Amino acid sequence: MVDPTDPPANALLKDAFGRVSEVVHEVLDGCDERALTYRPDPDANTIAWLVWYLTRVQDDHVADAARSEQAWTEEGWTDRFELPLPVDDIGYGHSSDEVAVVVADAGLLGAYFDDVHRRTLAYLDAIDDVELDRVVDTRWEPPVTVAVRLVSVISDCLQHAGQAAYLKGLVARSAGA
């Protein structure tokens, strides 16, 4: 929730991450195993993979900016998901076979997302303009600041959440709903 006393940048970032949360929860609501693993063709991503991936990206990137451990490892999500993937895998560049192994129910996906979202909001509560201007990646020109990294995460997460919402619609249409 956005606090009206938040500095404008923090309020804007909280609002944007909140919109990601809204879409993720709308997508997961009512999704059964068939919906979560549906693939319109053999190489397409699934809802389960898309939600897991966007959550892993947010967890990885925000934890890096916050200089903290990821929820994935610190809170034991890696053990709860029991995926046959390296513990530090965030899904980037996954093959069709790797997408297929990301199987989880909506409750588990939603709980992991909520944990990461909570941690993201806590980080946003603790930062100021100096932190937003801190450089976190010098491999780019100009170097990437915390603010740019957070906007990038929001953009990536919204794109993948939108893809998951589209897939949910395809699932409903394929079932004649």
What does this structure look like?
By secondary structure, the chain is mostly helical. The protein contains nine helices and two strands; from the N terminus they run ααααααααββα. It has helices at 8-28, 33-37, 47-66, 71-74, 77-81, 96-100, 106-126, 129-132, 146-174, and strands at residues 135-137, 144-145. A two-stranded antiparallel sheet has the order 1-2. Helix 1 runs antiparallel to helix 7 (106-126). It is globular and about 50 Å long. The protein starts with 7 loop residues before the first helix and ends with a helix.
Output the radius of gyration. 17 Å
Category from helices, strands and their pairing:
mainly alpha
Q: What is the number of helices?
A: 9
How many strands, which pairing sense, and closed or not: the largest β-sheet? 2 strands, antiparallel
Share in helix:
55-70%
Q: Which strand order spans the largest sheet, edge to edge or round the barrel?
A: 1-2
Which whole number gives the mean pLDDT? Answer: 94
**What gross morphology would you assign?**
globular
Kindly estimate the percentage of residues that lie in beta strands according to DSSP.
under 5%
Uncertain runs: none
* Series of H and E elements: HHHHHHHHEEH
Number of strands: 2
Through-space gap between termini:
34 Å
